[in-house]
Design a protein that fits this description.
The complex is a heterotrimer of chains A (663), B (176) and C (177). With 176 residues, chain B is an alpha/beta fold. Chain B has helices at residues 2-6, 9-24, 76-90, 104-114, 128-132, 160-173; strands at residues 45-47, 55-57, 66-71, 94-100, 120-124, 140-144, 150-155. In chain B, strands 5-4-3-6-7 form a five-stranded mixed β-sheet. A two-stranded antiparallel sheet of chain B has the order 1-2. Chain B is elongated. By secondary structure, chain C is mostly helical. Chain C is elongated and about 80 Å long. The chains are: A alpha+beta (663), B alpha/beta (176), C mainly alpha (177).
């Protein structure tokens, strides 16, 4: 078969996928309603069919990129014959159309995963869950087909070559960042679908929570990795050395993360104690709604951002309608069907229940703050009250106190007991950690820089206060049974430890790099040398280098410390041949305690360059912490009890009607 | 029953949010209203483009409605704007040019090629007047009334449609 | 990373810290390309802070310090000029707002139209705490069903026997449904 057919084949596969998802959305739902097992069992094969067809479409687009089919408009806009093959493959999601297709592909993959791994779910619950996922797929596939067809042709006069992938995206970090991020966004559709299915079926029991928990943990882990990768990419690729800009697009990913964090904690309470079910359901709806909102913000053109896609109002309208239907309908359903707010379980002021609720409250306020700051300019403008900006100073100002309070509860949560405990007992358990956190927190800046700093002390004390109590359970087990005792703690316990430890590590990184990072903009020519933070940077030479699709000015900079060579660094300024766009390629010498960061700015007269040199202490800790959080999430999801319970197929699951929940 | 009503709160908040998002669609987030509207034209003292010996200041704008156009030879859209400016000049509009971040030679070459609709041209090589006008690109235009107060601001180039739709009506509404 | 190298780095950092103080200030005085020198080191710090909290009007979403747009360079020049003339931070902000609008302030001023923006997070925390408090007060009343110490011990024993899989510390303190 000639490859010239591929795009049409891909489009046809999309249409088939849409048809499959319509069937997946309608038939099982009717089946669950009419109690028809045959109709209900339609869900799994349709989920598989949907995945196959979207996969086929995706493959067709990928091959179109690989084979330089520039008669396809999307390929012509985002690729070039000189592009290295691996970027041709990642260019598939380099623009709007392909990235929505990736979104749809991952959505169908999650659907397939649910179909495969949840075979032991009560049949009607599974039917409803997959039907809801089918509805979401219908929306997104219709969106692709109607407004964002990646297979549209440029005929009869196809261009000879493509306009090239945006140089900012020609980077290994960007090969993995969007898929991870979308895995997270889309992954929360599972928790969402479970929530809707529970509302539809009128059942919200303990088993439901156990099924939702691992899915939510996995989605949350992906989202954490996705956000961290985005931050890491911005750090080395944008050339400013910043790692978080409170840009609307970053905020769009932070909001579902914060809500998702609240969700996985709320799920813990609901599973363990059977309380706050409606709250958990609301969080599941909210988290996925925020993922959709993020999609809208990034693709509708309502906000300015460095990262937003080229926009088109018709797409914005479509997504908003989609958002309105999905979120509006699910919140309406929630209002009508949610179990009353009841607190069946008794607990007191000093209890893990209360700590987790406080944590939920703070996470939600943080989420609300991000939402408020991101949309406030839009709202003011809509009301004719003028144009303002809400940026990093606002967010930092609000977030620092909120995270300080959050970390207080994070330190107490793991050492407190469910239901209730004596205040004196909690004080006893917290005392040592508190003391150590205070002493080290206050002393560290004095030892490190010889100068006290409130911000550093606060940040380090917070991190230690979170991290130290985590050792308590491990110590107890060790003391009781030796190393064997450690096995008594469950994987979900270790997951929690890694997650919290990760946040402590990230807080440490954020604190130290923001207070002790040093930046120097110097005019440098071969022979010039400057000193930053004890490192001597000498420009050795300047030359030109030719890449497959760019030409670069390349500097060689020797870095010495105490007269010893640390590293030869090669920052570049690349000019891409197809787009004539210039790009800064930073040179990094990474290390666990500091990064050296060199970027070429603009050429100055006399053969010199403006060079931006930065020394960033502990910046790696930021992303290491995020990675630890993600591993924690995955570890918790793999806990034995989710697998065990699933094996002993629970038939009681279907028997707790809604009314009984609020008993 | 009351607690059931409380459950509608998330839905209500979402609907409110959606209304604002709806409003945001199709609007250009890069469009900005000038901070100088309804304020007096900033004071300046700059040389004339043609004759360095002639100095202009803000009194240039007193007594008559004027269109102040910020342009430069380096700016491609300024070239597309020239026919509209010539049209406006023909209709009797007084156009004051601010030659922004340019050289005299380039500016003269530009005017020779594309025509000269300007009553006067103020030469602003380091962009100081442009800065005081809050200009961050060219072309931008301001309509200043007879008292020297800025009444209208236009970012980007004036299209042929803009001439009849906004520019002329605004100038006419401010009187002769 | 070994704790040894960490300690060594700390010591080294300590030694160099004092010597570097001046350099740090010097470095703060510079931004994106063109050097700005200040005789007074405190001006350098203020310059850095101002260029980071002001938004480039031309760019998508960048502060003045990191933007390469010509207008951002002009604004940086003007800021350093005004700083050297002895203007206050607030005067400088106002001067830029007069020209480019409130849009350039990344940290919006507190005024009637931004009350909600500044007030809502705090308000939400307070409201949330009140709701939380009410919930807990109600939950505390429902103590009836709780087990006493003896029952608890018995239950833990039963659970030990019948649920040999890994348990959290807390799992042993409460009944499973």
């Amino acid at each position: 078969m000639s490859i010239e057919w591929l795009p049409e084949l891909g489009f046809f596969a999309l249409l088939l996928a849409l048809a499959a998802s319509v069937l997946q959305a309608v038939v099982p739902l009717l089946g669950a309603w009419r109690r028809n097992p045959l109709w209900m069992s339609f869900a799994q094969p349709m989920a598989a069919a949907q995945f196959c067809f979207v996969g086929l479409a995706y493959l067709a687009l990928t091959l179109s990129f690989y084979n330089d089919l520039f008669s396809v408009a999307y390929v012509a806009q985002n690729s070039n014959s000189l592009l290295p093959w691996y970027y041709k493959l990642s260019a598939v999601w380099g623009g709007h159309e392909g990235s929505v297709l990736l979104w749809s592909l991952l959505l169908s993959a999650w659907g397939l995963a649910v179909a495969v791994f949840s075979g032991r779910l009560p049949r009607d619950l599974l039917a409803r869950v997959l039907a809801v996922m089918g509805m979401i797929a219908v929306g997104f596939l219709a969106f692709v087909i109607k407004t964002s067809n990646p297979f549209a042709r440029l005929l009869p006069l196809p261009p000879g070559d493509g306009a090239d992938l945006n140089p900012l995206l020609q980077d290994p970090g960007l090969i993995v960042h969007p898929p991870m991020l979308y895995m997270g966004y889309v992954g929360f559709s599972v928790a969402f679908s479970f929530a809707i299915a529970a509302l539809l079926g009128g059942r919200l029991d303990a088993a439901w929570t156990r099924w939702v928990r691992p899915w939510s943990n996995i989605a949350w882990a992906f989202l954490s990795v996705g956000i961290a990768l985005g931050s890491w990419w911005a750090y080395y690729e944008l050339g400013w050395g910043g790692w978080w800009f409170w840009d609307p697009v970053e905020n769009a990913s932070l909001m579902p993360w914060l809500a998702g964090t609240a969700l996985i904690h709320s799920l813990a309470v609901t599973e363990k104690r059977g309380t706050f079910k409606s709250w958990t359901v609301l969080l599941a709806i909210l988290t996925f709604s925020l993922s959709l909102l993020g999609t809208f913000l990034v693709r509708s053109g309502v906000l300015t951002s460095v990262h937003a896609f080229a926009n088109d109002p018709s797409r914005g309208t479509f997504i908003l309608v989609l958002l309105g239907i999905t979120v509006g309908a699910s919140l309406l359903l929630f209002a009508l069907r949610a179990p009353r707010v009841t607190t069946r379980g008794a607990f007191s002021w000093i209890s893990r229940d209360a700590m987790l609720l406080a944590n939920n409250l703070l996470l939600l306020v943080m989420m609300l703050t991000v939402l408020l700051g991101t949309l406030y300019p839009l709202v003011l403008d809509a009301l004719g009250l003028g144009q303002i900006s809400v940026g990093p100073p606002y967010f930092n100002l609000v977030f620092v106190p909120l995270s300080a309070v959050l970390s207080v509860f994070m330190g107490l949560g793991p050492i407190s007991q469910w239901k209730s405990m004596k205040g004196a007992e909690l004080r006893r358990r917290a005392r040592l950690g508190a003391l150590a956190a205070l002493v080290i927190g206050i002393a560290a800046p004095l030892l490190y820089r010889g100068e006290w700093s409130l911000g550093v002390s606060l940040g380090l004390a917070m991190a230690l206060w979170i991290a130290l109590p985590l050792g308590r359970d491990l110590l107890i087990q060790l003391r009781r049974d030796g190393p064997r005792g450690l096995k008594r703690l469950s994987r979900s316990h270790y997951g929690m430890v890694l997650g919290h430890l990760g946040l402590a590590v990230s807080i440490t990184g954020v604190t130290l790099v923001s207070h002790y990072g040093v930046e120097l903009n110097a005019r440098m020519a071969p022979g010039t040398s400057v000193e930053v933070s004890g490192y001597r940077f000498t420009m050795v030479s300047l030359d030109e280098r030719r890449g497959s699709n760019f030409i670069a000015d390349r500097a060689t900079i020797r870095v010495e410390r105490d007269g010893r060579l640390v590293r030869l660094m090669h920052p570049e300024k690349r000019v891409f041949l197809a787009s004539r766009q210039a790009m800064t390629e930073t040179a990094l010498a990474a290390g666990p305690l500091r990064d050296l960061y060199v970027a070429l700015g603009e050429p100055l007269d006399g053969g010199a360059w403006a060079v931006r040199i930065q020394v960033k202490p502990f910046v790696r800790w930021l992303w290491a912490g995020a990675l630890s959080m993600a591993i924690g999430g995955l570890l918790a999801a793999s806990d034995k009890r989710y697998r065990l319970r699933r094996r002993n197929r629970i038939d009681v699951v279907g028997t707790a009607p809604l009314e009984e929940v609020g008993r | 029953m009351r607690s059931r009503l409380l459950l509608f709160i998330p839905l209500i908040l979402f609907v409110a949010l959606a209304v604002f998002l709806w409003h945001g669609i199709g609007r250009d987030p890069a469009a900005r209203t000038s901070a100088l509207l309804s304020t007096p034209f900033p004071s300046f003292t700059l040389e004339d483009l043609d004759d360095p010996a002639v100095l202009h200041d803000q009194s240039l704008l007193d007594g008559q409605v004027s269109l102040v156009n910020v342009w430069g030879e380096w700016c491609p859209t300024c070239k597309q704007e020239m026919p509209q400016l010539l049209d406006l000049a023909e209709r009797g509009v007084r156009i004051i040019g601010v030659d922004y971040k340019d050289t005299r030679d380039n500016a003269h070459a530009f005017l020779e090629q594309f025509g000269d609709p300007f009553t006067f041209n103020v030469f602003d090589p380091d962009g100081s007047l442009g800065f005081d006008l809050g200009v961050y690109g060219a072309p931008e235009s301001f309509i200043v009334d007879a008292n020297g107060v800025i009444r209208y601001h236009h970012t980007g180039y004036i299209t042929p449609a803009d001439v009849d739709r906004v520019i002329m009506p605004t100038i006419e509404s401010l009187g002769p | 990373m070994s704790s040894f190298s960490f300690a060594r780095s700390l010591r080294r950092a300590l030694l160099i810290a004092c010597a570097l103080g001046a350099l740090v200030f010097f470095s703060l005085a510079l931004a994106a390309g063109e050097p700005h020198r200040f005789d007074d080191p405190s001006l350098a710090g203020r310059y850095q802070a101002l260029t980071e909290e002001l938004r480039c009007p031309k760019c998508e979403n960048q502060n003045l310090a990191s933007s390469n747009a010509p207008i951002a360079a002009d604004m940086r020049d003007r800021i350093s000029e005004w700083l050297n003339q002895g203007r206050s931070d607030e005067q400088i902000r106002q001067a830029l707002v007069d020209r480019f609008g409130e849009y350039v302030l990344y940290k919006p001023r507190i005024e009637s139209r931004t009350w909600l923006l500044w007030g809502l997070p705090g308000l939400a925390v307070l409201l949330g705490l009140v709701i939380l408090g009410l919930l807990i007060i109600r939950a505390r009343r429902e103590r009836v069903s709780e087990l006493d110490e003896r029952e608890r011990a018995r239950l833990a024993e039963l659970l030990e026997k019948h649920a040999p899989e890994a348990l959290d510390e807390d799992d042993r303190q409460e009944p499973r449904s």
